[in-house]
Amino acid sequence: MMRHTFYALACLAALGACSNPLKTGRFLIDPPDQGVRVPDRIGTAELRDVSLPDYASGDEVAWQTADGAVRMDTKNLWADKPQRAFTLTLARTISDISGATVIAEPWPLAEPPRRKLEVRVEKALAMPNGVYRLTGRYFVSDNNAGGANQARSFDISVPLTSDKPGEIARAQSQAIAQLARQIATLSGPGRSIKTSAPKLDTIFSAPLPGFDGM
Question: Signal sequence span per UniProt (predicted)?
Answer without folding.
Answer: 1-19
